[in-house]
Amino acid sequence: MPVSTEAVGKTYPPVVYAVGREKVREYAAATGESNPVHLDPEGARAAGYADVVAPPMFAVVYSAPAIGPAILDPEVGMNFATMLHGGQEFEWGPVVVAGDEITTAATIKDISERGGMGFYVFESTSTNQRGETACRATWTNIVRGV
Amino acid sequence: MQGHVDEHRAGGVMRAGEQLPELRVTPDKYLTVRYAGASGDFNPIHIDEEFAKAVGLPGKILHGLWTMAQVARAQTEAAGGPEALRRLSVQFRGMGVPEQELVVRSTVREVADGVATIDAVAEQSGKKIIRNARAEVRIDRS
Q1: Domain limits at A80?
Q2: ipTM
Q3: Which of A39, B4, B63, B136 has the most C-beta neighbours closer than 10 Å?
Q4: Which residues contact B27 (CB under 8 A, 6 or more apart)?
């Protein structure tokens, strides 16, 4: 069954994520961070930040509520049984700290087929409460046997 | 907000061809459960041994984005803090598993205009599970 490219260009409603101190600490601990700017509010303040700093890859947490509906969209039609996360790219702007509110918008950038595999490329843009781009991300999922 | 974390700077000036310090970490048996909670990705292939085996996997597998976070950490630890990392792209290949050491190796490809471009791979038991990782790290934070 050939992949449907109808959903290319589709956009999804922006989602606001409020960055919490304990969520940042939980994420930092689970990913092995030891830098006190991620774990200790005092350490973060001593380094000049308002609160604990989200590790760069915390982008997956604040982007998830926006990118999830795009990935699950029946109009995109990915077969999850044979889906792999093929690749990922992030480009970061100013660091995110606890207390920030990050608004993320997702879009379907491309859907294509090569060698019996479907390539589904999603893009998300995350903006902080000052209107600065905190992160741009490209999410590539591969579906085998399309 | 620049230059606040210099006390953590470990690497000094990066030069083309230089290897960054290797990052070695062994995810324990329950790491995938903690990462699922921290990230919100509760796909059972990462947290349920029986489910993973039922769909043909050797057992619970690591989240690719956790492994990518280790590649990111190798860069930020070498560069002196989270602000240094401007960009990171990876390709996921193969599957990572708990209770085996993960090694991230990073090599500076070039340095231009205060930004180091770094190639990295993440291996477990000699098998690359992230390859073609490319990072851009700001080394001039004046």
Answers
A1: 15-20+56-144
A2: 0.95
A3: B63
A4: B62, B66, B96, B98, B99, B100, B102
Kindly report, residue by residue over A78-124, the tens digit of the pLDDT: 988 888 899 999 999 999 999 999 999 999 999 999 999 999 999 99
Provide the domain count of chain A.
1
Q: Using an 8 Å Cβ cutoff, are A48 and A143 in contact?
A: no
- Answer whether residue A36 is part of any domain: no
B34 closest CB neighbour out of A30, A49, A92:
A30
Subunit contact B39:A60, Cβ cutoff 8 A? yes
For the entire predicted model, the pTM comes to 0.93
Q: Looking at CA atoms only, how far is residue A50 from chain B in angstroms?
A: 10
Q: What is the CATH number of the domain that holds A67?
A: 3.10.129.10
Angstrom CA distances, B108 to B15, B17, B128, B136, stand at 6, 5, 19, 10
Structural domains of chain B, with CATH: 15-28+63-138 (3.10.129.10)
User: Which residue's entry shows tokens 């050939």?
Assistant: A2
> Which residues are registered as beta bridge partners of A89?
A138, B89
